[in-house]
Amino acid sequence: MKKLLLVLIASMMVAGLTACTPKEVASQGVTDDEVLIANCAATSGLYSAVGIPFVAGIEAYLKYVNDAGGVDGRTVKFLHQDDEFDPVKGKACLDSMINDEQVFAIVGHFGTPVVGATLQDLKDAGIPAVYFATGIGMLYDDKATVEEKNTNIFPVQPIYTTEGRIMVARAVGDYGAAKIGIIYTNDDAGKDMLKGAEVEAEAQGVELVKVQVTVGGADVSAAVTTIKEANVDFIIGASIQATIPTIIKELAAQGVDKDVITTYVNVSPAIASLFVDDIQGKFDVYGNGWVAFDAAHAEALALYQANIDATYALNAYAITGWIAAYYFVEGLKRLEGKVVNWENYIEAMEEAPITNPFGGVIDYADGARMGTQEMNLSKAVLNPAWDGVDATKKGIWTAEKGLEGIDSILGN
Predict the structure, then answer these.
(1) Other residues' Cβ atoms within 10 Å of the Cβ of residue 385
(2) Do 243 and 138 fall into the same domain?
(3) DSSP, res 105
(4) Contact 103, 38 (CB under 8 A)
(5) Residue 12 counted as domain residue
(6) Residue at 7 is within a domain
(7) How many H helices and E strands in the chain?
(8) Which of 77, 145, 160, 237 is the most exposed place for a label (fewest CB within 10 A)?
(9) Beta strands in 225-307 (DSSP E)
(10) C-alpha to C-alpha distance for 404 and 34, rounded to whole angstroms
(11) Are residues 264 and 381 in the same domain?
């Protein structure tokens, strides 16, 4: 009789476990009073000027949320480790966060080379990954599926491929270009922008003169000479921070007088300050953006500035860190009263569009993983309030045009 009773009890336990779906079990990194998240980002080295304020923005938003009581009784704890923009270190960091620290989500995964080296690791792990501080084309998917194990990826920033299309649309729609030069770097960022530019140039029936340069290369003179001799109407600088100042300074040195547009990741005072002297009286440099500071978004900016160190009051990278944390928390809020696990979180992110407090809406429904598709435009100028001391503040970016999609830019 005792043996029969034990068998019955065991059978009931097995049946109970079988009936318990994944949605009813909390995932790693979740306790009754805490949700643990993390990122790996460059807070030292060449890209620390981006990584430090970016992390500060994440921390500031989470402090704001936690000070108000957290989400459904839980505070959000954030771990960060410096990976120095190194793919090997980034890969080791991500593995540690997922498997050793056992965090619930990765928020603000940082940098094109690191994301490129670790994106498959994120997909294989199945862990929610919200916001990537890059526009690498690998993030783009218009139909993520459970079968492909990529529904856990939630990009927010514009994807470089989309941005390449927008840059051509700007050249044609705003500046009447019929022949466009593009100087692109031989990395994922440059190639993805080129890919998008090629698509839109074909769609608009304009000529695209293409020249490649090496990432971080000190000599881009041959590429610039090619663009100059091609007598293009407008130039796309498809390069991120390490190379774009070199390209722009060489364009100025060779006497080029055609305007330039570059990617949103270069739109910071520190980058503008590196070339703004060189371009005076020669040509203008424009940059895309995807956050707005106009009157319609004044409330969002005021809230941000009330909770961030004054040093970062208008720092674009800190604001994007704030946005990264905001998007993660918006998904978490949708789980109030529910079990906090990966499957439920992914469903929550897909159930309705999320509005960026600084402009634009992203809808992850039906597997859409395309990032922001509306961008604004700004111009690099000398800072009239420059103190003559801090060289990183010599240049600033001033607003030129508001958030628009490709159809709007082209007047369609």
Answers:
(1) 7
(2) no
(3) E
(4) yes
(5) no
(6) no
(7) 13, 14
(8) 145
(9) 234-238, 260-262, 285-289
(10) 39
(11) yes
